[in-house]
Write a structure and sequence with these properties.
The structure holds two protein chains of two kinds.
Chain A: H1 3-14, H2 32-39, H3 44-57, H4 59-62, H5 68-81, H6 86-109, H7 127-132, H8 146-156, H9 160-179, H10 186-226
Helix pairs in contact in A: 3-5, 3-10, 5-6, 6-8, 6-9, 8-9, 9-10
Chain B: H1 2-40, H2 46-53, H3 58-70, H4 80-114, H5 124-144
Helix pairs in contact in B: 1-2, 1-3, 1-4, 3-4, 3-5, 4-5
Classes of the chains: A mainly alpha, B mainly alpha.
Chain lengths: ~240, ~150
């Protein structure tokens, strides 16, 4: 890394406010506009790599793709592009693996009886293990990733918010792990941006959730007033497990 | 041969100043970069960020003091080797401690922005590095007294 770039990245990293612990705050400490403005300090190559990483890790980026296979191919390309930054490669890989486990849990909950062609919807190290241990609540990875068993239980119970929280906690743990290895470099900036996206999404998610809950309570109350006691609303839609 | 030793002597005489200046410049640039970033993200207290980022300035001052203590009426074959040894090694110390001090100051500035209450204690590593450059200064002065004239 050249000297002037190093100094530039020290300035950039110090100009980013501390994000704090996940779920500990209601709003992001820096707006998207300001964050984008700060990120203009990135080198052109780094800005491109960060954009690619966000494309395959953040929900808003992934939503553009038609199917799982496209995302998997894209993720492989991004990992190949990140060849100079092994920690970011591991991070993207771990994120895709977390998403694969959540997808597997969801498929099983929806009644899928075998893993099927897991290579068309799964990514990473655990695919074979998931396919072999389809009937195990934690897909045979529970002893080193206890959150999978917990997510299974919560998903069965229909507690989507808790599943989301659990998955985000796991992703944040991964980001913290690699973030601790970097202070003033591109990796540190990229990890900051990925954490920011999660914090920002959670803050919006909460608000949206509260609004839906209020609406459903209002509906129920109105129905109650009209004499119909049944409550049909699912408080949460089913497509929340996206981390 | 003696011309070579004389050349080394002059080299050693100026090394503490030159290497100290490089160390200070490098360290202040590292600390200053963090201070500027921190100013973008805070509403006040700019002075203290800039203030601590200037801490690596001391290395060049120590270098100047060492140079004056090494200065002789003439640099010759008898004192050239001593000037070279003391000058280059004390200069290298100033260079290294200056850069490292800049790095720990950048970390301290960044960390104390998230947690203002650690501002004072986060400067402790930089202060320890300052202590190491003072060791190099003091013992360079002691040895300068025993250079043959």
């Amino acid at each position: 890394m050249s000297m002037s770039r190093r100094h530039q990245y020290i300035t950039l990293v110090s100009s980013l406010p501390h994000l704090g612990k996940l779920f500990s705050r209601k709003e992001v400490p820096i707006s998207e506009f300001r964050l984008r403005q700060r990120l203009t300090m990135l080198e052109a190559d780094h800005a491109r790599l960060l954009k690619e990483m966000i494309e395959v890790t953040a929900w808003a980026g992934v939503a553009r793709y038609r199917n799982d296979l496209d995302i998997i191919h894209r993720a492989r390309d991004v990992v190949a592009d990140l060849v100079d930054y092994p920690d970011l490669q591991h991070l993207v890989g771990a994120r895709m693996e977390t998403r694969t486990l959540i997808a597997a849990l969801r498929r099983r909950r929806d009644g899928q009886e075998v893993a099927g062609d897991i290579s068309s919807w799964g990514y990473g190290r655990w695919c074979a293990r998931i396919a072999e241990n389809w009937s195990d609540p934690a897909f045979g990875v529970g002893h080193f990733m206890p959150w999978v068993g917990e997510a299974h239980r919560l998903m069965r119970a229909g507690d989507h918010i808790a599943v989301e929280r659990l998955a985000l906690t796991e992703v944040f743990r991964q980001l913290d792990h690699y973030g601790n290895l970097h202070e003033f470099d591109f990796e540190a900036v990229a990890i900051y941006a990925l954490r920011w996206i999660i914090v920002e999404r959670w803050s919006r998610y909460d608000e949206q959730n509260a609004r839906e809950r209020l609406q459903s309570l209002l509906d129920a109350a109105l129905r109650g007033a009209r004499g119909s006691g049944s409550q049909e609303h699912d408080l949460l839609s089913n497509d929340n497990e996206t981390a | 041969m003696s011309e070579f030793v004389v050349a080394l002597g002059w080299f050693g005489l100026f090394a503490p100043v030159a290497l100290g200046a490089i160390g200070s410049a490098w360290g202040c640039a590292l600390g200053g970069s963090a201070a500027i970033g921190a100013m973008l993200d805070s509403e006040g207290g700019y002075g203290r960020y800039i203030g601590v980022s200037l801490m690596p300035s001391s290395q060049v001052i120590y270098g100047i003091v060492i140079m004056f203590s090494l200065q002789q009426t003439s640099v010759d074959a008898a004192n050239g080797a001593a000037l070279f040894g003391i000058g280059v090694l004390s200069g290298a110390t100033m260079l290294f401690t200056g850069i490292r001090q800049g790095e720990v100051l950048a970390s301290a500035i960044h960390a104390s922005k998230a947690k203002p209450e650690i501002f004072g204690i986060s400067l402790a590593p930089a202060a320890v590095l300052e202590g190491f450059s003072v060791f190099a200064l003091v013992f360079a002065l002691v040895l300068a007294g025993s250079i043959p004239t």
